[in-house]
Amino acid sequence: MLAYGSHRMNPTPESTRETAAALLRQSIVWDNHGCMPVARPHDTSFLPQLQRYRAAGVSAVMLNVGFGEMGIEEHIRTLGSLRHWVKARPDEYLLLNSADDVEQAHATGRLAVGFDIEGANAVADQPSLVSLYYDLGVRWMLLAYNRNNRVGGGCQDEDTGLTPFGREVIAEMERVGMQVCCSHTGHRTVRDVFDVATRPVIFSHSNPSAVHAHPRNIPDDLIRACAATGGVVGINGIGSFLGRNDNRSETFAHHVDHVAQLVGAQHVALGLDYVFDTQELDDYLSKMAHTFPAELGYEKGVRMVAPEQLEAIVQALQKLGYGDADLRAVLGGNLMRLARTVWKSGAPI
User: Fold this and answer.
1) Structure pTM?
2) How far apart are CA 211 and CA 220, in angstroms?
3) CATH code of the domain containing 281
C-alpha cells in the first residue's frame, strides 16, 4: 500500500478558520465515541449537553452505555434511559440505526445518536445477547476493557490471547452486523482477532504509540492490520494518550496525520472519547487507582479534546496539506462506508 504522504498537497493560504468552518458545515461529521454518565442510568441531567456536538458541526455520535466490569443489567438500564430521552426529542435527535439516519440528521440539522459497549462483559456468558444489543442500537463493542475477561486479554493485563468463547462472540457480532472493536484490548488478543475476523475491524478510539508511547495506544503493525481488513482507527482525544496530558488540536492532528501517512486517510476517523461528567471520571480514577496508575497519566484533571475543537483540528490538518476529499473521509465518510458495509438492515425497535 502506498503511503498517504505521496498524495499530500502543499499548504495553501486558504487554510483558514473560515474554510475549516465551511467544510464542517458541508460534511457529515461522526464522532465514534462519547461518554455520558453510565453509572447513574436515571440521571439524564448531562444529556442536554449533546447539543454541544451539533453546535460543533457533528452529525452523528456513538455514546457509551457501559464498560469494564459493568454487568448486563447496568447496560440495559443505561440503554433504556438514553433511548427514551432521545426518542422524546425528535426535533433535535434521532436514534441511529443505519447510515441513512446519519444523512437524514445532517440534512435536517439534528444529531443522530447511536450506542457502543466497552468490553464483552456486557454479554457475560451468553453470545445471544449480541443481537439484543444490536436491536437496541449498539453498533460496535470492544472485546476487553484494559483487563482480561472471558473473551480475551486487556491492554493493561497479562494478555493470554483470544479465547474460544471470544471466537464465538466475534462470529455472532459479524453475523448480526455489529462492528468488532479492539480499543483497550491486549495486543496478543488483537492479533488473534485479525486471524479470525472476516469483516472490517475497528479501533474506535485508539492512538498510534509511535507518536506517544502508552499501553492504551497501538503499534504501527496493528494499524496496518486494521487497515488490511478495511477498518479504521478512530483518533482518541484523551490528553494522556495524545501526549503528556496534551489536548491541543495540533497534537490531535499529528496523530491523525501519522495514521494517514501509514495506511491512508481512508482508514482514519474520529473517536474523541470526550467525558462530559469530569467529576465522575475523577472519582472513578481515584477508586480504581490500582488498575489506572497515576504514572500512566490516570489522575485527576485529565485534559480532553472537546467537540468545540473540531474546527481547529480541521484547520490544523489543512495546514498540513490535507485536501477536502480526505478531510471529509476522516470527519465521517470512512465511518459511513463501514456502516454501509458491516451493519445489517432491519426494522429498528
Assistant:
1) 0.94
2) 10
3) 3.20.20.140
